[in-house]
Amino acid sequence: MREVVIVEGCRTAVARRKGKLANYRPDELAAVVLDELIARANVSKEDVEDVILGCVTQINEQGGNIARTAALIAGFPTHVPGVTIDRQCGSSQQAVHFGAQAIASGDMDIVIAGGVESMTRAPMFSNMKEAEPSEKLTSAYEIVNQGISAEKIADKWKFTREQLDAYSLQSHQRAVAAISSGKYEREIVPIEVYLENGTMETFKIDEGPRKDTAIDILAGLKTVFKDNGKITAGNASQMSDGASAVLLMSVEKATELGLKPKARIAARAVVGSDPTLMLTGPIAATEKVLNKANLTLKDMDRYEVNEAFAPVPLAWLNDTGGDMEKLNVNGGAIALGHPLGATGTKLLVSLIHELERIEGRYGLLAICEGMGMANATIIERL
């Protein structure tokens, strides 16, 4: 199997739902990232062999294979194909895995993997319309929404509301500090956006983090999914709009083109998990990917575990024995937002840049997914 490297990566700043990207079509948003990715890598669009994008709510402007339409909007030649995939919150991370597998097997040399989601213009679950789960499914499993899953995890791991809110406050504080120190500037593609008042501005700073949040504010929020529960809007990920992508190559092709890769993909894993708890998959996925890489969690310099809800990374820390000082060090989805299909490569891009800043070697990315699944990826900085 051939070695797969990441040559370049970039993302948009993440906007709140109905925020600064509300008037931006998601196909055009993805096109901006695809175009910038190629420009930063200084390679030819003609040489790209596939564009694989994750997108969860494939309806309206996100329907009709948005990977293909975005590539055409971005000016890729017609011979460059595109495909859109849905592995729920890990869709763009799965896009990386599929692209890496194509390269490792020798089928391709250059693949773009990424994702896009406008939760403003294609609201979550709008593609499901009035459909209900199959009775054959519900007779076999307790099918609940993710908020109830998060409540069940909090109860099973005996997390208190105070612990969840404290973690959430930390996410905002870390994100605000990262933005203030310019840590995200290099990875973000500035975008000119029209606002509701008709003015234009350059959107280049993540919109979600709140400087003014505090523990008493979080404690005052009502629970959303369960009376006397623990999950609120404050300790859950924000609904968001955004796009992200990475450029994958075989190491041989990168050498041929005279490019210096940023990282190599050391190992990939995907698992199924309990469809009722649903969000615990990153624990098993982490164990699996570490075994495949013949590494331990102590070898990881940083890890990104998506903050779908505060109990998710806390349960992961509890069961893996991870170090809080290595986890989501620049904030996570509770503060920065979670544009479903884009989150995987968004976090991967941020992880690569963080490893570069600290001169770290290994990074781990793990994301929980709807109906009980998770992807995990280990990268090695080059």
Automatic annotation (TrEMBL):
The active site is at C89 (acyl-thioester intermediate), H338 (proton acceptor), C368 (proton acceptor). InterPro entries: Thiolase (IPR002155), Thiolase-like (IPR016039), Thiolase_AS (IPR020610), Thiolase_C (IPR020617), Thiolase_CS (IPR020613), Thiolase_N (IPR020616). PROSITE patterns: THIOLASE_2 (PS00737), THIOLASE_3 (PS00099). The keyword Transferase applies. Keywords: Acyltransferase, Transferase. Pfam families: Thiolase_C (PF02803), Thiolase_N (PF00108). Residues 259-381 form the Thiolase C-terminal domain. GO terms for molecular function: acetyl-CoA C-acyltransferase activity. The keyword Acyltransferase applies. Residues 4-251 form the Thiolase N-terminal domain. Belongs to the thiolase-like superfamily. Thiolase family. PANTHER family: ACETYL-COA C-ACYLTRANSFERASE, BLR7806 PROTEIN. This is Acetyl-CoA acetyltransferase. The lineage of its organism: Bacteria, Bacillati, Bacillota, Bacilli, Bacillales.
